Amino acid sequence: MTDALDDNFHVFDTTLRDGAQREGINLTVADKLTIARHLDAFGVGFIEGGWPGANPRDTEFFARARAEIDFQHAQLVAFGATRRAGTRAQDDPQVRALLDSGAPVITLVAKSHDRHVELALRTTLEENLEMVRDTVSYLRSQGRRVFVDCEHFFDGYRGNPDYAKQVVSAAHEAGADVVVLCDTNGGMLPAQVQAVVATVLADTGARLGIHAQDDTGCAVANTLAAVDAGATHVQCTANGYGERVGNANLFPVVAALELKYAKTVLPAGALAEMTRVSHAIAEVVNLTPSTHQPYVGVSAFAHKAGLHASAIKVDPDLYQHIDPERVGNTMRMLVSDMAGRASIELKGKELGIDISDDRALVARVVERVKERELEGYTYEAADASFELLLRAEAEGRARRYFRVESWRGIVETRPDGTHANEATVKLWAKGERIVATAEGNGPVNALDRALRVGLERIYPHLAGLELVDYKVRILEGRHGTESTTRVLVSTSDGRGEWATVGVGDNVIAASWEALEDAYTYGLLRAGVEPQE
Amino acid sequence: MTDALDDNFHVFDTTLRDGAQREGINLTVADKLTIARHLDAFGVGFIEGGWPGANPRDTEFFARARAEIDFQHAQLVAFGATRRAGTRAQDDPQVRALLDSGAPVITLVAKSHDRHVELALRTTLEENLEMVRDTVSYLRSQGRRVFVDCEHFFDGYRGNPDYAKQVVSAAHEAGADVVVLCDTNGGMLPAQVQAVVATVLADTGARLGIHAQDDTGCAVANTLAAVDAGATHVQCTANGYGERVGNANLFPVVAALELKYAKTVLPAGALAEMTRVSHAIAEVVNLTPSTHQPYVGVSAFAHKAGLHASAIKVDPDLYQHIDPERVGNTMRMLVSDMAGRASIELKGKELGIDISDDRALVARVVERVKERELEGYTYEAADASFELLLRAEAEGRARRYFRVESWRGIVETRPDGTHANEATVKLWAKGERIVATAEGNGPVNALDRALRVGLERIYPHLAGLELVDYKVRILEGRHGTESTTRVLVSTSDGRGEWATVGVGDNVIAASWEALEDAYTYGLLRAGVEPQE
């Protein structure tokens, strides 16, 4: 059962329907169920799951969502269209499929732009109104709550405001709980949205919602402008996924409502889960989370400028619009060649190494970071490699648990078309020369296994480490230089994760370097004494 | 010499100063000069180049920009701070460096939030006002135009509006041409910005500008809200680069002003270059252009939904808020497993292959695309691979210019620490068996060269092809499956570019597949007859 939040204001999520239109997203039913669980736990009021009947995947989703998910906060919503012209709602198989989905709430999309009625729907303006009335009434008579999405509302309103408002009134009078004004083409700006919503609200008396697309880069602001004008239902998608540029992003919209409007729209404690939920959904749709997304991006509270870094020591609140903990994010100090001494000192403290007394050391570290970043390294995303660098400078020499003599990787096609990956490493550890060979499902995996095979007898601790993420970036060579490859590796020991970086003239060489740092850091972290 | 646009409205770009604070950006002097040329050609009125004196790179930039760039539209701006407390502006070396930069315009950053004055600057409120007056007057006396950035203005205004306005008045009365209200922490929403700008304008009479950060996802809307309230100077960065989440994005701001406000803020013809300029700057800063950026992203006018695709045949203007040609972008139909028949047909037409009469063929192509996308392929970004797939289905068999028997790649460390990359391919072409070996700067490059070495004698046309871009994506394995690797390759023959995709269990295998498609397509495009 749901413990639906106050019905006076709706947070309506359409990630699974409109969000799935984003270029590059392709959701399985299992993906949709996972996302629905995240959204329900986060506490949105409504989850639009798809268009049952329009494709078998969505039909299956509704059947499984009802059977498998015990919704705590959200109500499940089925999306569909008004009945076809010249028929009756109760005879339309598409309308039937909406009822068959078992969803307690149905969103009907209706045309509200006169030219779309004539050119795309190819029916009369009056018949379109009748389609709205008939379909809404029928679904209401079947016990469903109905919302109506007025497609292309704002564009239609510009050319023919009377007709656009007639569609709103038809839906409202037929029993729709909310009539949603959609900026389907996304061309609106906040001032326009605010003016139109206010007028339509005054003229029709319908409860209004807003559905904004981000084509002008103003979807979040347009959504808030509609709320300012009296809309009490906001349609959004997680991370702003959606067709073309995308939809209004759920996370900055709810954060603005909770933190800037002081309006409770989520269950207690939900906002502090926002960063995690955003990243989890990105993971499921298999898109890299946007590093620069408001509130939840890893860069959203990252400070780079030397100017700021020195002042942040005085009072972090002077330099952040909110406390990042409120949305589950954290402040980060970035290490980069733009950073001055203050950043390096703060970063040292973050890592538990106080170097602020040793000015010469700080200067050496700044210098070393500059050199390495010129070569293509980045320490902003590779804390463990930075810590190794910092310790090497502080201790006068790098910690080494092993020394590599050489390595070799071979990739070849087998006669059956599959691939063989084999790697050999030759190394020294604790005074012993080790030669190890291993196969893997790729050349980097083979190298990783060969390194472990060779070292695990001497450092049994390595058996507990796992590579959890692997990223490759080709750094374009400009001005006649060759391109280089940068690899970032994340490794886990079950208690924590760390990231390391490697740079090389090819992906294998770069990966090898990141792996060396990853294992060195893992052993350091475990308190193992270095012994080449 | 500049042909400065109407001075009544300023488009002020700070990509080179504030934009460079973005995590992951690290600009050389050469990069900054290249970006300045792009921005000048695009037609912004002012280019803030950096902080001369604060770091040697920026000092060098100003010297070289004056010597090497013949600005057509923009004026060069140096950024710096008001003089230190308790000194005189003419004695402050930092102020001296601003004059020495030779920039005709200087932006001074001034504190306008009382707590920042006390806690970060550690001086009195009155001395801060005197620092503003003294520095502005002195620079004016030296013949420079002065803009003043009131840092943390909106946060300061909330706590102490009188003091914040005193700073504006001090700058204005001392001779600053524009006083820029900065939302430095980025926490504002448009309605707040509009109200504050309107009040400050009425109370001080100063010419006002706006500098918005994007921490609420509203920087573009905040900028436009300030313009609505009377600001006549907008500070932006290309692609919204900037610290934390970023700054107000130059491109949607100028597009909104030109297309939605019908306000001329760029030279004639500039807007149609916007997509190219955005991508070129991303290239220079070495960040992948955001595919979902408003107006200029490759997805910004891409249509995926079957629903839309069928209606777009009727009238594209019904489904786009502007004609993409106006900003130099193009409408695209996406091929994906969500696409229905209509999308595939339109895509065929785009490629010059009319398949709309053959319903069975269209169904087979839809089916094949679905299968391949499940395996990890993506045709949205790989038109050439899609065309090969489409032709294979239409012609009953794939075009083949060669058949691969096997290939092998070896990567190893040399004794001197450098890497050797060697590849061998065994293939058949025109009835001949070919064995070729080549070295390269990486394993993929070695394979590419071996393939060319083997085939160029038989297909001399291949000598003119060049790999121009190479992207690797690890597709995370979920639900217990192994991860797979997807590679996208762009190839050029000097007249055009095409993109191909390969998927495999490792990066080399995936690259190999994308290369095979790339060369097959290159030969097809050149009109070479297939002969295995």
From TrEMBL, chains A, B:
One of its GO terms (biological process) is L-leucine biosynthetic process. Its EC number is 2.3.3.21. GO terms for molecular function: (R)-citramalate synthase activity; 2-isopropylmalate synthase activity. It catalyses: pyruvate + acetyl-CoA + H2O = (3R)-citramalate + CoA + H(+). SUPFAM superfamilies: 2-isopropylmalate synthase LeuA, allosteric (dimerisation) domain, Aldolase. Pathway: Amino-acid biosynthesis; L-isoleucine biosynthesis; 2-oxobutanoate from pyruvate: step 1/3. It comes from the Bacteria. The keyword Amino-acid biosynthesis applies. InterPro entries: 2-isopropylmalate_synth_dimer, AIPM/Hcit_synth_CS, Aldolase_TIM, Citramal_synthase, LeuA/HCS_post-cat, LeuA_allosteric_dom_sf, PYR_CT. Residues 9-272 form the Pyruvate carboxyltransferase domain. Keywords: Amino-acid biosynthesis, Branched-chain amino acid biosynthesis, Isoleucine biosynthesis, Transferase. SMART domains: LeuA_dimer. Belongs to the alpha-IPM synthase/homocitrate synthase family. This is Citramalate synthase. It comes from Streptomyces buecherae.
